[in-house]
Design a protein that fits this description.
The complex is a heterodimer of chains A (112) and B (138). Chain A has 112 residues and is an all-alpha fold. Chain A has one domain (3-111). Helix content of chain A is 76%, strand content 0%. Chain B is an all-alpha fold. Chain B has eight helices and no strands. In chain B, helix 1 crosses helix 6 (76-97) and helix 4 (55-63) packs across helix 6 (76-97). Chain B starts with a helix and ends with a helix. The chains are: A mainly alpha (112), B mainly alpha (138). At the A-B interface, helix 6 and helix 7 of A face helix 1, helix 3, helix 6 and helix 7 of B.
């Protein structure tokens, strides 16, 4: 794929991924066929900052987990009052990483 | 989505152990101590009960055989009892036969729950339960 397109993608989507994944994504995109560009450029990613805000406000109801697509864990969090309040606090720190991980999983469906 | 079988089973195992320990503590300590040990973050800060407040009391009254009281305190107690009873048994079954039926089941349920008509109706149920909790003053 065209290096210019790939760099544009990387620049506009850096905040959605872990720093150590960026280079691998770039390498992979460069070797890919141009016909996939349309699909990849239209993928919607979840913003880690948004999920952090949701986690701070609605974490004890599990809304943060529902938003990033971890429905099963969300139900677990809802049923236990946010894991007796402990899981809520853990997730304030974990949710951004979890969101980036989710975004990577989503992109991987198109990469491989 | 949880990507591996063992990760899900570890989390479920820890959750079940924590649940049983909590249940044991709540059943054999006296009631005043439990009330001072207020676990719910929302209730602690805002004094308004959350959708799943009262589920410990609900599970305890279920264990005593008071189905109506359990239903009155919090219907979510039934869901919790079902999960706490069947999840460990299912996990043991999976471990002994080296399969991943519970993991597949979990993924299937998660897939279904993401469909809008299930999701919206369940969200409405939880909100209704929440309103009921507030009016009951749990």
């Amino acid at each position: 794929m065209d290096a210019q397109k790939v760099d544009m993608f990387i620049m506009s989507n850096t905040k959605f991924f872990e720093a150590h994944q960026i280079m691998a994504i770039r390498e992979r995109l460069l070797t890919m066929d141009d016909s996939k560009w349309h699909m990849i450029s239209t993928v919607q990613f979840k913003d880690p900052t948004t999920s952090l805000i949701v986690s701070l406000l609605g974490g004890s109801l599990g809304i943060d987990r529902f938003i990033i697509g971890d429905t099963g864990l969300g139900v677990g969090k809802l049923l236990t009052c946010g894991g007796f309040g402990i899981w809520t606090i853990i997730d304030w720190f974990m949710i951004q990483g979890a969101t980036r991980e989710k975004n990577m999983q989503k992109l991987q469906q198109f990469l491989y | 989505m949880i990507t591996s079988r063992n990760k899900l089973y570890t989390m479920l195992f820890i959750a079940c152990i924590a649940g049983y320990i909590w249940l044991y503590l709540s059943m054999y300590n006296n009631q005043s101590e439990i009330n001072s040990l207020n676990t719910c973050f929302i209730k602690h800060t805002t004094n308004i009960p959350c959708p799943s407040c009262g589920s410990t009391r609900s599970v305890i009254s279920l264990l005593h055989g008071n189905f109506n009281t359990a239903l009155y305190i919090n219907p979510l107690g039934f869901v919790i009892v079902l999960i706490m009873l069947f999840a460990p048994l299912w996990m043991i079954l999976d471990f002994t036969t080296k399969r991943k039926t519970l993991f597949d089941f979990y993924n299937k349920i998660e897939h279904h729950l993401k469909k809008p008509h299930y999701a919206i109706s369940l969200v409405l149920l939880v909100i209704a339960n929440w309103i009921w909790n507030i009016t009951k003053g749990l």
